[in-house]
Amino acid sequence: MLVSSKGLLLAAQQEGYAVGAFNTNNLEITHAIFRAAVAQRAPVLLQLSSGAITYAGIQFLSQIVRTGASSADVPAALHLDHGPDFDTVMLCLRHGFTSIMRDASKLPFDENVAEIRKVVGAAHAVGVPVEAELGRLVGVEDHVVVSEREQAMTDPDEAAAFVEATGCDFLAVSIGNAHGFYKGEPNLDFDRLQAIRDRVDVPLVLHGASGIPDHQIRTAIELGICKINIDTEIRYAFAQSVRRTLAEQPEQIDPRKILGPAIDGMQAVVERKIELFGSKGRA
Ligand code: 13P
């Protein structure tokens, strides 16, 4: 069933686990996420970026997710990932999203605050919670030097002031995480996460979680991460499966025979993440 993300993340915060937030941009990924969530009896977020919305069309994609949610007997939220501007937020609210992220983290602190306050005002008026981000996720390029890396990270005192000033419901943090695959082993700054946790009481969000080793994910959850975003590992499973199928059956032209195994591969990734995040059996 389609629900707000607020109750899901508050329950996760209280019980000490994290809810998976999985990116989708088509029917097959959406099927994989719902099948995994139902198989594992887990609450789940399905998140659409503005790129996904441009690719598939908001009407199509949000209806696919809503249809999946109405036939799945686990709670699921329809979430905007990295909302780039106020207009996109409003469009998503009109299409029945039950969770919004507005990412204004590239703006200076005061402008980020002003923008999120505006979004919180609009979203809360229709009962929808808001995720915001403070600090920037740096790229994974080798040339990013340590001081740059640290400057981009979330400052714990600023985080407290930010949540207080904006009224946001969840806060995405930058603690050494990055989108896409990591070059070498990522090194999350757990002291920083602990300091943020000590000053901020809303559920915390970890972006860029593909490729972070399991033991670091478990520690992050112990230190207060309640929502974990996964995109790249699902894409990788999709591409691997399609490549394998076409290599084994070069004459195959039936989309169902090509994409069916890809759904299975993506479902396996989502199920594994659900177990790792501790959200199995929480629905
Ligand atoms: P990955 O691409 O590392 O899985 O991160 C996804 C994400 O954070 C989406 O917001």
Key features of this structure:
283 residues; alpha/beta; TIM Barrel; 8-stranded parallel barrel; 12 helices; binds 1,3-dihydroxyacetonephosphate
**What compounds are bound to the protein?**
1,3-dihydroxyacetonephosphate
Give the H and E element order: HEHEHHEHEHEHHEHEHEHH
User: Would you tell me the overall average pLDDT?
Assistant: 95
- Uncertain stretches: none
CATH superfamily caption? Aldolase class I
How would you describe the shape? Answer: globular
Radius of gyration from the CA trace?
18 Å
Distance between the termini: 11 Å
Enumerate how many helices there are, as a single number.
12
List the helices and strands and how they pair.
Elements: H1 5-15, E1 19-23, H2 27-40, E2 44-49, H3 50-56, H4 58-71, E3 76-83, H5 86-94, E4 99-102, H6 109-125, E5 130-134, H7 146-152, H8 156-166, E6 170-173, H9 190-199, E7 204-206, H10 214-222, E8 225-230, H11 232-248, H12 255-277
Parallel strand pairs: 1-2, 1-8, 2-3, 3-4, 4-5, 5-6, 6-7, 7-8
Helix pairs in contact: 2-4, 2-12, 3-4, 5-6, 6-8, 8-9, 11-12
The structure holds 1,3-dihydroxyacetonephosphate (13P).
The site of 1,3-dihydroxyacetonephosphate has 14 residues, from β3, β8 and α11.
